[in-house]
Amino acid sequence: MQHAVGAPLPPPHGPGIGHVGRPYQAQHPGPPPIPPPHPAPGQAPPPPPHGQAPPPGHAQQPPPAPGRAPGAGWSGTGPTPPAGEAVGRTGHVQLPPGGPVPLPAPPAEAGTGGATLAVLLIGPAGAGKTTVAKLWAARRRVPTAHVSLDDVREWVRSGFADPQAGWNDHSEAQYRLARRTCGFAARNFLANGISCILDDAVFPDRPVVGLGGWKRHVGPGLLPVVLLPGLEVVLERNAERSGNRRLSDEEVARIHGRMAGWYGSGLPIIDNSTYDVETTARVLDDVLARSIASPPAW
Fold first, then answer.
1. Measured between alpha carbons, how far is 217 from 233 in angstroms, rounded to an integer?
2. Strand 144-148 relative to strand 195-200: parallel, antiparallel, unpaired?
3. Is 73 left (phi over 0), alpha (psi -120 to 50) or beta?
C-alpha cells in the first residue's frame, strides 16, 4: 500500500504523544484499585495513599502533638493533656480540694514561724485591721494571703448594699455571701499550703451571723484575734477615710461600744491605741503563737 508523498503516516499502535485521544489508562486498564480496609470499632481509619484525598465519610484525625498522649478522661477536644495527667487540673498543678481548716501544729521557733494557719482579725471600723493584716501577711517568711471582707463585699458594683445606709436584710444577705466567699478562699489557700488572714467587724452579740458563721465556713482551726483601740483613736482614723468606708461618728461609737463585749469572751484582745502598724503586727504574731499553743475556746 502506497501513500502520497507528504501525507502523515498513521501511528502503528493508536494515538501517540501529542495526539488528543483517550488517556493511556483508559486504553490499557489495569486491575481495579483495592478499597481501604474498614477499621475495627474504636480504631481510626488508616491514612489514604500519598497524593490521594481521603474517601468520603472518613474524617482524617489530626496527629497528636509530639510527646503527648491522651490522659485519663480526655474527651478528644482541645489540647491533649500529657500521658497520665488527670483531667480537672489547672495547668500542670494539682489543686487539692479545700476542707475545714484544722488546728495548726505548734511552731518550733519564736512567733508563728513557718506554721500554716488561718487567722480572723476582728475589730471596729478604724481599728487598723486591713493595714495590720496586710503587713503581717507580707512580713511572714512562708506564703500568706490577706482577704478583706469589705473588699469582697465591694465586688458587687450595681446594687451594692452601702454600709452608710444602715443594716437591713439586703446588706445582711450580701454580708453572708461575702463571708462564705472568703471562707471558701481561705480553705483553698490552706489546702495548697498558703496561710490566710481575714479581717471583719464581727460583733460578739450576734454569734450566728458573726463568729459562728466564720467557724462554720472556715473550720475549727480558725484563730480569732480582736483588735480594739480606744474610741478616740478609732474616730480619728475613721475621719481619714473616704467613700463608703467612712462612717458617721455616731455609727463608729455605736460599733465600738458593741465591740467592748469581746472583753471576757476568752478571745485574745490587742489594744493598739499606742502602737504603730509594725509594732501591732509583731504583737499579733506573738498572740497567734500563744493561740496555737493554747487555742481559745470559742
1. 32
2. parallel
3. left
What letter represents residue 51's amino acid? Answer: G
User: Among 8-12, 66-70, 282-286, where is mean pLDDT lowest?
Assistant: 66-70
177 SS3 class: helix
Provide Rg for the chain, Cα atoms.
Answer: 38
Strand order through the sheet with 118-122: 144-148, 195-200, 118-122, 222-227, 269-270
Q: Which residues fall within 8 angstroms of residue 11, CB to CB, at 6 or more apart?
A: 19
Q: What is the pLDDT of residue 122?
A: 96
**Cell reading at 150:** 469589705
E-assigned strand segments in 179-265: 195-200, 222-227
Q: pLDDT tens for residues 34-70? A: 555 555 555 555 555 555 555 555 555 555 544 444 4
- Tens of pLDDT along 225-247? 999 999 999 999 888 887 767 78
Element (H, E) at 25: helix 24-27
Query: 3-state class of 277 per DSSP?
Result: helix
Distances in Å between the Cα of 120 and the Cα atoms of 15, 86, 149 are: 97, 35, 10
